[in-house]
Specification:
568 residues; mainly alpha; 0% strand; disordered N terminus
Length: 568
């Protein structure tokens, strides 16, 4: 009798819970995308295609599209070369200190792209403090070599190599060690085993990682803005930014078409990758029981040395150059014991109101987004796993869309959605709340997937036992599901915070006076010639990110496998 009453009460609770969770999720995650689509096809003007054809036939649009394809494509090729090399060596060989290598390779992905660009600009060019200090700076008046398509490709490749690495490493773990052992017992050497066995089996993961890197590079704003705008080299994200900043909301229909163009190119790339993947499918049975391990023999030390030299070149060297710039009194002055000063650090952290406000705004947005998404994702993940229906399966399939689309596309979608709230005279445009709504949509899947994976591994028997003795749904979620899913929820919260606190691509189009974020302030400082202050602020953010990543690493044993991206 009690079980029946409990079941009936649970069903009523579930009926009330479904709309409370699914409707806000659908509106937050999918509402802006639908609004963008309607604007792009001229819904407000009777489904006219006039503005669509006008924008698409402009020379500036075609040029920006070609530039986007060239830089995103070149950056993807470089990301594949870097990420795949690290993945094969870390996953397949007996090199030492694998955890430290992976941790260092992940840092560039966590560092904002505008900071990456700023750091690399301190390594090269006639004004490089590091080169001046070493007496190696080119003569004044020499061009900055990174202000070019090649510079954009280089930094996009470095920035997104971690995506290829993570995807490929996961695929390599699926390869049965028995196949490799059989090839080795047949007399095949390590190189032949890799070329004829490992590489063909890992191609699906490699293609998937390349597709993700391409989509991410296509929507990257920070690197093309810092390196391309000074050289007059526009991509689609920077063209949208320049049009919106220059003309204001009056050009929303135009930039909506440009945003849809980016989305169409990104989706085309993903579909092409899936088509190739369908022809490359292999029937692997699951995780390999024994990790693959190919002995490098005498080559191990040279390979390890090469990997660490590369890490130093792409991570330590740019950060050291940016640190040196942050310690001088004026840009271009060589760093020495006499010139070293913390004046810029004091100015940006303690004096300048815009930088202090940006820190407060970014921390508020990151913490709020993480907490709200955690509160929504736990019951949503439970519904998807325990009460799967056509609605939840559809939502599960579509919820990746705001994260998969380039950030600038989501920004335009949010402007269109929240510039005039339905049935009111209110607007979120120009307020911090529109940035928060964009963050919620953008990072929803980052929070949801770890929690979803954790709940899928929980035995429902405990919940059923609690229900049989009269425990209501809310009590079961609070006392059983929440404690067991807490490690994954904590990891997801940290990942959302790390990603949101330094975000620029989304907030670059949404900020206004008083709602600046850290990424926006760094870009604006560099753009206005305050390179020393920009470097000091950027270094403070890098230190914050590394400390947070270190804290996550220190508590890695408390989290389920696969939750922390740089953990095996």
């Amino acid at each position: 009798m009690n079980a029946g009453l409990s079941s009936s009460g649970g069903s009523r609770s579930l009926d009330r819970l479904l709309p409370l969770i699914l409707i806000p999720v659908a509106l937050i995650a999918l509402g802006p995308v639908v609004r963008l689509l309607l604007e792009g096809i001229g819904f407000g003007d009777g489904f006219t295609t006039d503005h669509l054809s006008t924008v698409l036939t402009r020379d500036t649009t075609r040029t920006a599209l070609l530039h986007s394809l060239a830089t995103a494509g070149g950056g993807t090729v470089l990301s594949i070369l870097i990420g795949a090399s690290f993945a094969f060596l870390v996953a397949l060989t007996d090199i030492r200190a694998k955890g430290a290598l992976v941790f260092c390779l992940m840092i560039p992905m966590m560092i904002p792209p505008q900071i990456t660009a700023l750091a690399w600009m301190q390594v090269t060019g006639p004004s490089s403090v590091l080169l001046k200090t070493l007496g190696m700076a080119p003569p004044l008046g020499s061009p900055q070599p990174l202000h070019s398509p090649g510079g954009i490709v280089l930094l996009l490749g470095i920035q997104h190599a971690s995506i290829v690495f993570l995807t490929l490493r996961a695929g390599l773990r699926m390869i049965p060690a028995d196949l490799v052992e059989a090839a080795r017992m047949s007399g095949a050497g390590a190189l032949r085993v890799w070329a004829q066995t490992v590489l063909p089996l890992s191609m699906p993961a490699l293609i998937a990682g390349g597709a993700m890197a391409f989509v991410t590079a296509l929507g990257n704003f920070g690197i093309p803005a810092m390196l391309g705008i000074p050289a007059g080299y526009s991509t689609l994200p920077t063209l949208i930014y320049q049009r919106l900043v220059g003309m204001g909301p009056s050009v929303l229909p135009e930039v909506a078409v440009l945003a849809l163009l980016i989305g169409a190119v990104a989706i085309t790339g993903v579909l092409l990758a899936r088509f190739v993947l369908a022809r490359q499918r292999f029937g692997l049975v699951g995780l390999s029981g024994t990790p693959l391990s190919l002995s490098l023999g005498k080559s191990r030390l040279p390979v390890e040395t090469g990997l660490w030299v590369f890490i130093f070149a792409i991570l330590a060297l740019p950060l050291l150059a940016m640190l040196a710039t942050s310690l001088i009194p004026a840009y271009g002055v060589p760093l020495s014991a006499e010139t070293a000063t913390l004046k810029a650090w004091k100015e940006v952290l303690l004096v300048q109101p815009v930088t202090r406000r940006a820190y407060v705004n970014s921390l508020f947005l990151a913490v709020t987004a993480a907490v709200v998404l955690m509160a929504i994702s736990i019951p949503l993940a439970w519904l998807m796993e325990r009460r799967a229906s056509r609605v939840t399966r559809t939502l599960d399939a579509l919820i990746d869309l705001p994260y998969a689309l380039p950030g600038v596309v989501l920004s335009i979608a949010c402007i269109l959605t929240f510039i005039n709230l339905p049935f009111t005279d209110l607007t979120l445009y120009g307020t911090i709340w529109i940035i928060l709504m964009a963050y919620l949509a953008r990072f929803f899947v980052v929070m949801l997937r770890p929690i979803q994976a954790s709940i899928s591994q929980l035995d429902p028997a405990m919940e059923e036992a609690a229900a049989s003795v009269g425990a209501r749904l809310g009590y079961r979620l609070r006392t059983i599901v929440l404690p067991l899913a807490a490690p994954s929820a904590a990891a997801g919260t940290i990942l959302v915070f790390l990603t949101a606190v330094n975000e620029l691509t989304v907030s670059a189009l949404l900020w206004s006076s008083g709602t600046e974020t850290l990424g926006v302030v760094i870009y604006n400082l560099e753009d206005s010639g305050e390179t020393v202050m920009a470097s000091a602020l950027a270094m403070s953010i890098v230190l914050l990110i590394v400390l947070l990543m270190g804290a996550v690493q220190a508590g890695a044993r408390r989290f389920p496998n696969g939750v922390i991206p740089w953990q095996s």
